[in-house]
Specification:
The chain is of the alpha/beta class and about 230 residues long. The chain is built from six helices and nine strands. It is about 30% helix and about 15% strand.
């Protein structure tokens, strides 16, 4: 623990200039515009597998397994592969390169998400009578994940593969997961992740410490299965 605290303090000291000197990034709306779903051929031309740009990024796509809040794999997740829009993937690779120099790396829980998977999440909230998760902004009915412009991830120690302490598990639907609602080493680690992602153009969603989005002009929705 002492080693981790020292590492966190050192990394924070090496972070970019104070936030007061930079304009604060603004998170996009939880739900995206209602647009047509682009053809799979278009998705293939715009999405890129993240690990094709950096094989040191760890991928643990939770929705391809039963290890997620629904208790079952979601439709469209047929492989443990993370895709993003090409521009976002290139920026993420730069984040990984920066973190690697500090003995840290990224572990991805979700990236591009097919529309059919988002619809399955909404259906799940109806089956278990949890409409509050939609109302409170924890589950989106039209997600930026569908655009290939959102990613859920955490930090790991590259030497051990151990996840850093973040205060809550991924997909914790409570105020404890709000980025600012942590203390001690968890708060420091959340800020390390946030600062590293923001330096490369990602914006954190303040209700989920793990969720970041990227912006490109005229985004498109996709439903291409992940294979």
């Amino acid at each position: 623990m002492a080693k981790t605290l020292v590492l966190a303090a050192w990394i924070l000291g090496c972070a970019s200039p104070p936030a007061a000197s930079r304009p604060a990034p603004v998170a996009p709306p939880v739900n995206t515009a209602e647009t047509e779903v682009a053809a799979d051929a278009v998705a293939d031309s715009l999405l890129v597998e993240v690990r094709s740009l950096d094989t040191t990024i760890v991928v643990d796509m939770r929705y391809a397994t039963a290890n997620n809040f629904t208790g079952a794999p979601l439709p469209g997740y047929l492989a443990n592969r993370a895709y993003l829009r090409r521009e976002a993937a290139a920026s993420l690779a730069r984040v990984q390169r920066d973190l690697r120099r500090r003995g840290l790396g990224l572990k991805i829980f979700d990236a591009y998400r097919p529309v059919r998977a988002t619809l399955a999440m909404v259906d799940w909230t109806e089956r278990v009578n949890r409409p509050d998760l939609l109302k409170d902004g924890y589950i989106a009915s039209r997600s930026r994940h569908n655009l290939g412009l959102a990613i859920d991830l955490t930090l790991i120690e590259t030497a051990t593969g151990r996840e850093l302490e973040m205060g809550t598990a991924f997909d914790t639907f409570s105020a404890a997961a709000h980025t600012a609602n942590a203390s001690g080493i968890a708060a420091a680690n959340r800020q390390i992740l946030k600062a590293a992602m923001e330096r490369e153009g990602f914006v954190n969603y303040d209700q989920e410490w793990w969720h970041f989005s990227f912006n490109v002009p005229n985004p498109l929705r996709f439903d291409r299965p992940i294979r």
